[in-house]
Amino acid sequence: MKNSILFIVFVSFSSILLGQVYEIGVSVGGSNYVGDIGRTNYIYPNRPAGAVFFKYNWNPRMALRATYSYLPIQGDDVNADTDFKQNRELNFKNTIHELAAGMEYNFYEFDMSSKDKTWTPYILVELAAFRYKSAQAEPQPGEYVFTNKTSYAVPIGVGFKSKLYDALAFSVEAKFRYTFVDDLDYSTPSIPSLNFGGTGNDWYMFTGFSLIYTFGRPACYTEGL
């Protein structure tokens, strides 16, 4: 009896996996940051960036998604819109490595096997962990010691996706990450020369284009359409 139950569970689970459509993709575009240095435009990509992702289509409206992103960021007071920052002349560069997981929600049903459900705008809500460099000490004036630090962010995004050809699709997407730290630009009250941080936490963003490949047998929800 126990073996029969295990067999039924195994067959049911296998059917669920085989009956879904999966997607893998690569994104290319640009990243930027908003914090205490430089510009404060939330969509202003100024460094080349990219990502790879995997999606599990739960139904035509929702997909579960996991993403790794490589996101260089920089800021320069020369490009700021205030005299205070321009006279201060601070600048920095950092690199963010991010792992994110969350849900993609389509405004319209999206089904690659259908003839009339092949495009939709969507929103994206995720949780993310990211790694970056943080300033730890200043042993000599103007010389800093850095360490790798891990923190968390809440990414939200908007996008548009459409079928391209056969199993290929594309998307255009903008994602905004609110972090729980204020030192992406190395600002820290523990080092006097880097004590320029404000009262708000930093943001980082990605804007780009994705090419998506769909694989797996058409899901059961597409049958009969």
From TrEMBL:
Q: Which domain of life is it from?
A: Bacteria
Q: Which residues form the signal peptide?
A: none
**Gene3D superfamilies in the cross-refs:** 2.40.160.20
What range(s) does the DUF6089 domain occupy?
6-222
Which InterPro entries is this protein grouped with? DUF6089, OMP/PagP_B-barrel
* Name of this chain's protein: Outer membrane beta-barrel protein
User: Lineage, please?
Assistant: Bacteria, Pseudomonadati, Bacteroidota, Flavobacteriia, Flavobacteriales
